[in-house]
Amino acid sequence: MEHFVTMKDKTETEILQLVRRAHHISQKGVNPLQEQYFAANLFFEPSTRTKMSFVVAERKLGIEPLDFMTDVSSVTKGESIYDTAKTFESIGANFIVLRHQQENIANQLAESLSIPVINAGDGTGEHPTQSLLDLVTIYQEFKQFSGLKVVIAGDIKHSRVARSNAIALSTLGCEVYLTGKDEWHDESLPYHYVSMDEAIEIADVLMLLRIQHERHQDQFNLYQESYLEKYGLTVEREANMKKHAIILHPAPVNRGVEIDTKLVECERSRIFKQMKNGVVARMAVIETLLNQGGNFNEENFNKRQ
Ligand code: CP
């Protein structure tokens, strides 16, 4: 594995190795790397969880994060994303973590740079490390993926989380369903749409999405009363979920919109566990990219345990 920019090019084996490695780190921890490494965390879009969990993951691995703030960088003088990334490569960054509003930009940079690129969210494209941490959370619950029914619910069309997860979950043998407002369907995703009430009946995992209002052409009133009732997870719906079913949400959560605020920390909710798993998932990705030199090999993983 040379880069981590999409779930599309990952095999079932590659994904499972990352999931198991992240889970292993969550149980046993890991020693810091012996060599000196620098990480370039290039966040051109706002982030709390992804950015800070990358910083924690890097520091736990003994890697020095090179913090970058666009508003006090040479981006304000018109420097391009390509020249910014090349600058970090030139001054010794060992990998780049990129969040950017432009879809496919991480992939383009990966083709142009000699250091690994990790996609931390590219517009409405993909968010593969969010998907990985979701997979770790599902794995910790069910210990396998094959046959699990996962419903991804909400603003499918504008969600990079939906895209990465639908791809990865299918690769792992899950049954993926989608639900949401008709105008937010994404017909390019080859999955069956169900109503929210059908979703409640079938889901082993209900993956709620944030309404990506910043990516909408037309302003959507988040707090119109009918949204939660029609499309969100109400207290009544939660009571009808399968006994063992869990709730995921990548956060930030629009409380009272996608989910009743009473359910954000309910027994089924794994929302804060997902955030915790964000650190180990990102550690697994980083050490794989730095240690494996393009070859995915679990034996090498285990040498460092
Ligand atoms: N889930 C997620 O990507 O959150 P942030 O935007 O806070 O990084």
TrEMBL record:
Reactions performed catalytically: carbamoyl phosphate + L-aspartate = N-carbamoyl-L-aspartate + phosphate + H(+)
E.C. numbers: 2.1.3.2
Residues at which carbamoyl phosphate binds: 49-50, 99, 127, 130, 251-252
Positions contributing to L-aspartate binding: 77, 160, 210
Its biological purpose: Catalyzes the condensation of carbamoyl phosphate and aspartate to form carbamoyl aspartate and inorganic phosphate, the committed step in the de novo pyrimidine nucleotide biosynthesis pathway.
NCBIfam families, sorted: asp_carb_tr, PRK00856.1
HAMAP family per the UniProt record, alphabetical: Asp_carb_tr
Stated name of the protein: Aspartate carbamoyltransferase
